[in-house]
Amino acid sequence: MLTIALEQATFYAYHGFYPEETIIGNTFVLDVAVRIPGTVPVDDLSETVNYQGIYEVASLVMAIPRPLLEEVVYELSDALKQRYPAIQHSTVTLRKMNPPMGASIRNSMVSLEKQY
Q: In the chain, where does DSSP find H-type helix?
């Protein structure tokens, strides 16, 4: 298997369950790793998953506010599989930095791993 990934892509977005989160927004850090068959060497971009394409899909998904981070990771996983049918496995991890909980917490995190 061949792994293509983006690590620590940072977005400012408006995901959150509480109304103030959808107004104020927050910083989110996204890690995405996908795996495709890797039995032969790749020498053309059309034979792989373009990590710029991963970022483009992530940007579109992150731009739509959702109440739960779980919704975001499922949507991103599904959108990547739709754009790149060769994907056989994906891991999408989303961190909300400094979640508004009244406590000193670096981040909350939701991670989804899917086998196709």
A: 19-24, 51-62, 69-83
Q: What SS3 state is found at 46?
A: helix
pTM beyond 0.85: yes
Given the candidates 3.10.100.10, 3.30.1130.10, 3.40.50.1820, 3.30.420.10, the CATH classification of the domain at 2-115 is 3.30.1130.10
Tokens describing residue 19: 């109304």
Q: Residues near 44 by Cβ (< 8 Å), separated by ≥ 6? A: none
Q: Tens-of-pLDDT digits for all 116 residues of the chain?
A: 999 999 999 999 999 999 999 999 999 999 999 999 987 778 878 778 999 999 999 999 999 999 999 999 999 999 999 999 999 999 999 999 999 878 899 999 999 999 99
